[in-house]
Amino acid sequence: MLVIGLVGGWIVAGRMLAPLTRITRAVRKAENGSLSHRIELEGRDDEFRELADAFDAMLAQLEARVSEQQRFAANASHELRTPLAVTQTLLDVARRSPNPDDGELLERLRVVNTRAIDLTEALLVLSRADQRSFTREPVDVSLLVEEATETLLPLAERHGVAIDISGDITPAAGSPALLFQLTTNLLHNAIVHNLPEDGTVWVTTGVEHEWARLTVENTGERLTAQSVSTLTEAFQRGTERVHSDHAGVGLGLAIVKSITRAHDGILTLTPRDGGGLRVTVQLPVSAPA
Ligand SMILES: Nc1ncnc2c1ncn2[C@@H]1O[C@H](COP(=O)(O)OP(=O)(O)OP(=O)(O)O)[C@@H](O)[C@H]1O
Ligand SMILES: [Mg+2]
User: pLDDT tens, 174-194?
Assistant: First the structure.
């Protein structure tokens, strides 16, 4: 009896503990940096299975996050290298030519340098939002919209774009500077990525189902749901302007996304039926001050 009991117990314990061994092995692998391994435990829906599935889901998230960071670092270095390489070429050409036109050279260097500064500043905003290193204050989003519109009105006039604002007081909590940046980026995009002429931008603010909501909508080229889904990734931009002098750096929406995330909000991008884009930012509503 004793022998049968011991052997039986040993077999049952072995079967029970086998999943744990697999989970431990997977944890060790992840610890050594291999994030692509999955446990994929099959069998009954018990506690072990639940633990293994949760661990697999965590690994998938981590893997996606790490590869996003790696792409980001590669793209950022590439983008930062471009203005430096252009500067180098301009200086080389100037040194070789016997009669350099200093005025033109200086102007071109200034343009390239401004671009490098813009890019670096955008990267700094992005990292500040990602670290959530800001204090939360009451903010009325509708006031931010008014302020941003005032700043960008000359740009809208130059692009022949009309801006239509509507909405009520929209109380949220967060960093006024970052939320202003978010509003400005969205409005800026809605103006510059609009129709060549007679474009319109609609900005609405308001409170809906416990969310402070900001919607920026604009006319423009027709977009597909698939192309829209990639726009918030850093350095993604529409092909049309990449080669022009005024091409953006492609960080505007990435900054919007990271500021929204830092404020526990939700960002939604949808193509408009008639062409153009609708962007909605929802932030947790706060009691009005
Ligand atoms: N409101 C919009 N309507 C249509 N397309 C848009 C809109 N906003 C963004 N896009 C598309 O998404 C791309 C990425 O936008 P994002 O703001 O991140 O970069 P950008 O505007 O090109 O450069 P910048 O960093 O200077 O803002 C744009 O290049 C454009 O193709
Ligand atoms: Mg932009």
Answer: 999 899 999 999 999 999 999
